[in-house]
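2024-03-11 09:14:02 DEBUG pipeline.ingest accepted 1 chain
2024-03-11 09:14:02 DEBUG pipeline.ingest length=250
2024-03-11 09:14:03 DEBUG pipeline.predict start
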Amino acid sequence: MSPAEAVLVALAGVVAGGINTVVGSGTLVTFPVLLGVGYSPVVANVSNTIGLVPGSVTGAIGYRRELEGQRTRALRLGCASIAGGVTGAIALLVLPEDLFEAIVPAFIAIALVLIVFQKQLSARMAARRAQAPPHGGPWTAVGVYLAGVYGGYFGAAQGILLISILGLTLPEDLQRVNALKNVLAGLVNFVAGVVFALVADVAWEAAALIAVGAVVGGVLGARYGRRLPDPVLRGFIVVVGIVAIVRLLT
């Protein structure tokens, strides 16, 4: 990797760390950059997953105020995220590479529809949601697990999927949901990264550069993203999701 390419990878890490903290889909920045500097898709994917873990940590720390009172919920749903992340990581190593990528745009599109109509759907589900346990009930755990499988396999727009699931099933505003999303997505990346580090071919130089950038991006994303009003944050999520779909289809 040339010095110019190293700078490009690190800058991509900054952007991805910020986007992941605010919404998700940072992988759609770093993954193409790693492909562009010459890494194979699988090596780029596993190296990117490992590199983004530190950014998830700084993003979660930045949202610690919104995480207050969610410790038990985070622990319970975190178990589902860990299980999903391990499942998705193993799937990446044993299944054909094109299998999930073919349906990724559909997952993102569904998540965006859920986010756009979150208020209306939440109003209809209010009575049922009020009777659910504080962690959201079994369907929340199932959704978080499936999002973890997806995140462990590829990761792009995992945050959007998590926000749509948590936003519909938890009695919380979007910023508190986003804070919990950062923790859960970070757990998925961490456990998937452990699996990859043990058994996969990792480009450690690229992972380190992304990690340094993602830490900076996570801090910046938390500082400014947590100040956004719900409608603005929801609009930003939709824009990022549409861009993600376009990039995956082209």
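2024-03-11 09:14:41 DEBUG pipeline.report The radius of gyration is 17 Å.
2024-03-11 09:14:41 DEBUG pipeline.predict end
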